[in-house]
Amino acid sequence: MVSMETITSLCKRRGFIFQSSEIYEGLAGCWDFGPLGVELVRNVKEAWWKNVVHQRDDMVGLDASILMHPQAWVASGHVENFTDPMVDCMRCKRRFRADHIDGENCPNCGGELTEARQFNLMFKTFIGPLEDEASQVYLRPETAQGIFVNFKNIIDSMRLKIPFGIAQIGKAFRNEITVGNFIFRVREFEQMEIEYFVKPGTDEEWHEKWISNRSDWYLQLGIRKENLRCRPHEEDELAHYSKSCVDIEYLFPMGWSELEGVASRSDHDLSVHAEHSKKDLNYYDPVAETHYVPYVIEPSVGVGRAALAFLIDAYSEEEVAGRKRTILRIHKDLAPIKAAVLPLLRNRPDIVQLAREITHALQKEFVAVYDDTAGIGRLYRRQDEIGTPYCITVDVESLDDRAVTIRDRDSMQQIRVSVDRLVETVTEKLKS
Ligand code: ATP
To answer: Has domain 35-67+139-312 been given CATH number 3.30.930.10?
Structure first.
């Protein structure tokens, strides 16, 4: 398995991910997606949205604000309970999350640790010019509560019938005690969350369906089966209202870790918001002719964490003709660049012109780039390393036969295609 250092270095070198504010020594737990990273992340979100919203009849989308009424976080229990236990080393002064360390002593220097204190992970800020308690609000630590507080707006405006779900992608902020493993645990991240509302009594069946639906999504996008597993939470890991929770885990370089949580949360969230807001959040079931508070299934994943898993799983090194070839065998839907057009001779204006024309034609359909900054061997290697599925070379013969070569990233096989059929051919290949 590839090491996290190798992935981190590839991501920096090839413009996927940079440390935030790097020229000022960086800001811990914050990362910036560079030119290729932003394309990858857009593709991850697009693939998710297509799968859970556009290709289903029972799902709708939402984009709620990051700042919410502070009472929403009192009702949800985050003000009181969204805490992690924190310990400090009395010798080296390092700080740790108590439930992330084994044994009684400091994992860094073996020193004595303080008693664990509960630390609330929500970032606070203020609305308006006065920085007092009355104006204090939170940067949301999850997108889910924005969905619950809009439950009534959505059923009233969209005339939805249970079972149905609401999906949302958006930023979340957590003042994590410790961050690390590259973008695995960060303080500012994007989440992709679903709240799927069901009739009480059908929740177990829907929980199972969502676990398998979400696991399949990773497999369809190329994650290897042996690197994905489901782990049900132990009794003592569950919140008191939670009926059950299953983590979809990925075999990251540091070991099996949570990629996505799929929780079955009963009617807890809607009930507490109904109680605190004094609004009726019951659902009238026209089939059963009765009112009830729906139960909810919540699949929740971090965009960056998913992108990291896709990168790790796609990374491979192989030897071709005695030379190392680094290749990102990432799914075509996720690849930041779909095709690169490479002129064989960059000092021939007629070849360059044809290559530029071809690039512009391809760019109307998908992300395509032109590159003539090195010899063909090096250009191929660069595109392999960033996972570009197809390289198109324009050579001297192309001027006569109006045909170009398409090289496949994975098999390195080449086919000759007429320029007139190029866009169509590559589009078809990207879909297959
Ligand atoms: P942990 O116990 O590891 O702190 P959690 O169980 O509280 O995490 P959830 O609240 O279930 O995490 O978050 C849902 C998903 O959001 C996670 O599966 C993960 O993909 C993502 N996520 C949560 N916290 C972070 C973070 N600090 N950095 C990156 N992604 C995160």
So the answer is: yes
Question: What is the whole-number distance in angstroms between the Cα of residue 12 and the centre of ligand 1?
Answer: 24
Nearest CA among 205, 312, 195 for reference residue 261: 195
pLDDT digits 0-9 by tens, 186-232: 999 999 999 999 999 999 999 999 999 999 999 999 999 999 999 99
Which of 184, 300, 310 gets mutated to test ligand 1 (max ligand atoms within 8 A of its CB)? 300
Domain with CATH 3.30.930.10 in the chain: 35-67+139-312
To the question of domain 337-431 being in CATH 3.40.50.800, the answer is: yes
With a 6 Å cutoff on the Cβ, whether 78 touches ligand 1 is no
Q: Which ligand 1 atom is at minimum distance from the Cα of 247?
A: 18
Lowest mean pLDDT among 20-29, 101-110, 324-333: 101-110
- Residue 331 per-residue DSSP state: -
Q: Residue of the nearest CA to atom 23 in ligand 1? A: 302
Statement: residue 242 has pLDDT above 90: no
SS3 21: coil
Of the candidates 77, 104, 36, the one whose C-alpha atom is nearest the C-alpha of residue 334 is 36
pTM: 0.96
Asked if the model's pLDDT at residue 241 lies above 90, the reply is no
For ligand 1, the distance from its centroid to the CA atom of residue 302, given in whole angstroms, is 7
368 backbone dihedrals φ, ψ, rounded to 5°: -135, 145
Mind listing the pLDDT tens digit for each residue in 252-262? 999 999 999 99
- What is d(CA 81, CA 100) in angstroms, rounded to the nearest whole number? 18
Pair of tokens at residue 319:
């030897």
pLDDT in tens, 31-68: 999 999 999 999 999 999 999 999 999 999 999 999 99
Residues in the chain: 432
Ranges for all domains in the chain classified under CATH 3.40.50.800: 337-431
The rounded Å distance from CA 272 to ligand 1 centre is 22
Cα distances (angstroms) measured from residue 178 to each of 7, 101, 345: 21, 11, 51
Q: Is the CB of residue 260 below 6 angstroms from any atom belonging to ligand 1?
A: yes
258 close to ligand 1 (CB < 6 Angstrom):
yes
Q: Is 174 helix (H, G, I), strand (E, B) or coil?
A: coil
If we measure between CA atoms, which residue out of 65, 61, 3, 10 comes closest to residue 36? 10
Query: Cα dist. 402→358, 387, 409, 422, 427 in Å?
Result: 11, 27, 23, 10, 19
What ligand 1 atom has the least distance to the C-alpha of 263?
11
